[in-house]
Description:
Number of domains: 1
Radius of gyration: 16 Å
InterPro entries: Adenylat/UMP-CMP_kin, Adenylat_kinase_CS, P-loop_NTPase
Pfam families: ADK
Binding site for ATP: 11-16, 128, 174
Distance between the termini: 11 Å
Largest sheet: 5 strands, parallel
Number of helices: 9
GO cellular component, one term: cytoplasm
Low-confidence stretches: none
Function: Catalyzes the reversible transfer of the terminal phosphate group between ATP and AMP. Plays an important role in cellular energy homeostasis and in adenine nucleotide metabolism.
Strand content: 5-15%
CATH architecture: 3-Layer(aba) Sandwich
Amino acid sequence: MTNIVLFGKPGAGKGTQAEFLKEKYNLVHLSTGDIFRYNMKNDTELGKLAKSYISAGNLVPDEVTTKMVIDSVNANPEANGFLFDGYPRNLSQAEALDAFLESKNMNVAATVALEADDEVLVNRILERGKISQRPDDLDEATIRNRYVVYNNETAPLVAFYKQQGKFHAVDGIGEISEITGRLSAVIDNL
């Protein structure tokens, strides 16, 4: 079973690349954004709990997010592996994921980070915002704040996964097919 963590700053192309990778490697794509939307839309207990935090303007606690991810993994017992997109987001979540996977005799095979310059990413998101009309993709200050949060919470995962020998950085700039090729080269060599 191949379990891969895909991460990078907002706008780095995780969602785009995840679509190609899940097909190529027959992985179940677990996007925390999709998992949150599903649980809230379907009014699950976890969805109601998450909504209560979000409605109050608070972050959803790690335990709730982790439980949603665990439920999603458990809902796919026949999976050949998972592509985690947006999770883990911090060290606490990474440790929880490792403990859960270990309890199932699984592990994270690799973490792959799509890396790109902030200015390039800001422009990508602003362009995406013109199409999506998502308010958080139209405001440059909001976008830049997301990078501050990423640098404070998610960037420390680099050291965590490097220590395990599982970290791989991939240049996230270029044509989509070129980036897919770079990601595939990493995964093919696991």
